[in-house]
């Protein structure tokens, strides 16, 4: 049965904080309407409203970031309407500005994801977490990502071999569930093209996961220039104990072996004790690295006087250090998105942020309104 294009669709649109500020990007979040207005962690992080928008107006949008999130996802219905009502060239025109794609807890099949990826012409960054693809499926997905000239990938599963065989990326971020197993790095894998690495989460195997990764990090990333180390991979809260001192020795060893241009350490420091521990970390790093800076910031939703995270930046690459401070301090974010992290190692990344955010939940307006007002239905 042919799916005709609708006259209009009901979407959720985030309110613009300013009509003076330029918005170079459009974030298209494809999700079940029960999740409208929520970020990946289930929080409503920005105000917005349901908007009835003309289909022609929506089709004229040029999304820069596409997110496919959560179960009962309407992505398939969107692709079907596009395929049955437009030529391939028109569909590619709609997606021509997409620079990043993210999958999170979604039930989209690998076939349908590939169908969507074939509508794109270029893609700079790809992220995923809690997907159910098998390794043969990942191999096909990664081949397509290579054709799209992918430059950065956020890894949340043990597909390092498949990534190495198919991609030449300059940025890798270790984050999400179930996480990458540290033992995968002990197999002699070398990512010789990677310039920036963000270590945010690992698959938990034991109490020494962080130390074991640092032991082989220089071999696994021999041309690394920037390392972001989230203390969450060591412990949720920072304590300046013997283990911390040993890990700092390892970080300094990595810095020296690779002659890093920039090193960042991020930690949750909600109280005086953890803040004092972070100050000790900074003092320890200053012994071996020049230009060590310690900053504290409050994440979004907290007042500026309630700093709950700390950031240490160090190194001789002033441009990257400045970018890191902006990503964490100015944006008040503990998890910078891939579109921003790519600026650490790529000169020609087109700005994605700030961006207008739109949530698309399918074509059944009555059902969308029902799910939005009563998410448990």
TrEMBL record:
Organism whose genome encodes this protein: Caenorhabditis briggsae
Name of this chain's protein: Uncharacterized protein
């Amino acid at each position: 049965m042919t799916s005709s294009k609708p006259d209009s669709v009901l979407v959720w649109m985030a309110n613009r904080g300013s009509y003076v500020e330029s918005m170079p990007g459009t974030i298209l979040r494809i999700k079940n309407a029960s999740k409208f207005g929520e970020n990946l962690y289930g929080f409503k992080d920005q105000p917005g409203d349901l908007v009835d928008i003309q289909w022609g107006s929506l089709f004229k949008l040029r999304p820069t970031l596409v997110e496919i999130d959560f179960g009962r996802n309407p992505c398939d219905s969107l692709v079907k309407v596009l395929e049955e009502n437009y030529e391939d060239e028109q569909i590619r025109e709609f997606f021509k500005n997409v620079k990043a794609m993210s999958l999170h807890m979604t039930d989209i099949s690998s076939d349908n994801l590939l169908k969507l990826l074939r509508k794109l012409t270029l893609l700079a960054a790809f992220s995923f977490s809690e997907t159910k693809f098998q390794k043969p499926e990942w191999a096909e997905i990664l081949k397509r990502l290579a054709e799209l000239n992918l430059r950065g990938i956020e890894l949340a599963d043990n597909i390092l071999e498949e990534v190495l065989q198919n991609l030449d990326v300059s940025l890798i971020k270790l984050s999400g569930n179930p996480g990458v197993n540290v033992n995968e790095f002990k197999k002699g894998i070398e990512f010789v093209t990677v310039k920036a690495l963000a270590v945010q989460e690992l698959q938990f195997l034991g109490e020494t996961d962080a130390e074991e990764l640092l032991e082989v990090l220089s071999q696994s990333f021999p041309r690394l220039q920037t390392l972001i180390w989230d203390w969450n991979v060591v412990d949720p809260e920072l304590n300046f104990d013997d283990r911390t001192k040993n890990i700092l020795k390892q970080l300094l060893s990595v810095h020296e072996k690779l002659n890093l241009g920039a090193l960042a350490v991020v930690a949750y420091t909600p109280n005086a004790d953890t803040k004092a521990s972070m100050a000790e970390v900074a003092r320890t790093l200053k012994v071996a690295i020049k230009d060590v800076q310690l900053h504290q910031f409050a994440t979004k939703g907290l007042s500026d006087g309630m700093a709950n995270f700390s950031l240490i930046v160090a190194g001789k690459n002033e441009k990257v250090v400045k970018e890191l401070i902006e990503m964490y301090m100015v944006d008040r974010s503990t998890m910078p998105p891939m579109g921003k992290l790519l600026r650490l190692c790529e000169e020609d990344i087109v700005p994605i942020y700030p961006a207008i955010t739109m949530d698309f939940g399918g074509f059944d307006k009555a059902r969308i309104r029902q799910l939005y007002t009563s998410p448990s239905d």
